[in-house]
Amino acid sequence: MDRKADPETQLEVDEAILDYLIYTAITSLLKLLDTIDISPRKQHNAHLLVQMVDTFLPVFRALHADYKASPEIQLRLRLFQFTYVFVQHYHPFSGVNTAFARRPSTSTTTETPRDPANSYQEHHPQAMPLEQTLPLFLALSAVQNELQGSTITEIWMVLAAGYMAQSYIEQVVVYQNRSSSLLDQAFHWGYDEDCPAEQASEQRQINDMFGADESSVRLWGSIREEHIRALYPPKDTSLVDHLENMASGALSVVTFKEKVSEFLAGLLSAYQPPLLIQLERGQVNGLSRKATKALKLRSGFLHEAMDET
User: Fold this and answer.
1) What pTM was estimated for this model as a whole?
2) What is the predicted pLDDT for the residue at 92?
3) CA angle, 213 as apex, 210 and 215 as ends, to 5°?
4) Which of 86, 203, 206, 220 has its CA 20 to 30 A from that of 117?
């Protein structure tokens, strides 16, 4: 007799698997940002986990067409998407083919990168330009703030302004973009009380995040202007030389990557890990170790539970 799982039970199981894969993929990707010398094993593991998510997600959506993810899983999906494209920018996977790298391009980049021997370009292999990843970073931040009922902090504003500065430096130094509007484009983000975007759109969420209160609007304006001024070269110094100096000093690329990595790790740890991760660790939130062991037996972690007796 053909036996099929109860649809509700099947959804719970598939959701647990999806959440587990997303979480482990993010964790593996973050290890690539935290490591100066990335071993082939670490890169292979991250690559494999990204492909597993990319394979499982469309199957999940096909099986559960009416599924609406919880706010936490939605956030983790966004976190995975951004973490992936950010890591890809600095540490491209060879031959990777994931849907998360195939977003519509809004880039102003038209030039080819400079000679890889360039000191700044050593940190920038050919990948999705930072200017294309910036909206993902801002949208992720906006969703997090909305979920937590919080507002942006000064620390976050400095990180965001640094991100905009890095995207500008990359366009000038790596892509040799000399558009007169480039600096304004990089730093155009902020609060617009006449924002024309639809209420539920990402653009509206980002706009509202910057305009949470009057003090935030003023502080962001000050931090943004400070970063813009820092990008203007002093007299008798070329723009490219000045930006390369900034990227190895006050606006260090290495420090920038570390700060973004800390931000992402903080988002990941702000919520309870997926149930399967908790089971792996031997302690489910709200349950005793004995109750966790019993749950592991019922959930298919039998061999692990037996090993602990």
Assistant:
1) 0.82
2) 80
3) 95
4) 86
Residue with tokens 């959930």: 299
Q: Model confidence over 225-273: pLDDT tens digits?
A: 999 999 999 999 999 999 999 999 999 999 999 999 999 999 999 988 8
Judge whether 295 and 284 are in contact, CB under 8 Å: yes
pLDDT at position 35: 64
Structure tokens belonging to residue 97:
């083919």
Contacts 24+ apart (CB under 8 A), 217-222: 217/190, 217/191, 219/154, 219/157, 220/152, 220/157, 220/190, 220/191, 221/190
Residues 6+ apart with CB under 8 A from 105: 132
Q: Please enumerate in sequence order all residues whose Cβ is within 8 A of that of 254, keeping only pairs 6 or more positions apart, or say none.
A: 123
Rounded to 5°, the CA angle 263-269-274 comes to: 135
CA dist 210 and 192 (Å) reads: 9
* Cα–Cα distance for residue pair 301/309, rounded to 1 Å: 13
Q: Tokens 């997926």 appear where?
A: 274
Q: How far is the C-alpha of 170 from the C-alpha of 204, rounded, in Å?
A: 27
Tokens, residue 284:
């489910």
Task: Please count the CA atoms within 13 angstroms of the CA of 99 that sit on its side-chain side.
Answer: 10
Higher-pLDDT residue of 185 and 128 is 185
DSSP of 47-86: HHHHHHHHHHHHHHHHH-TT----HHHHHHHHHHHHHHHH
**Range 36-61 average pLDDT:** 89
Comparing CA positions, the residue from 82, 18, 83, 25 lying closest to residue 49 is 25
Degrees to nearest 5, angle at CA 198 with 195 and 202: 85
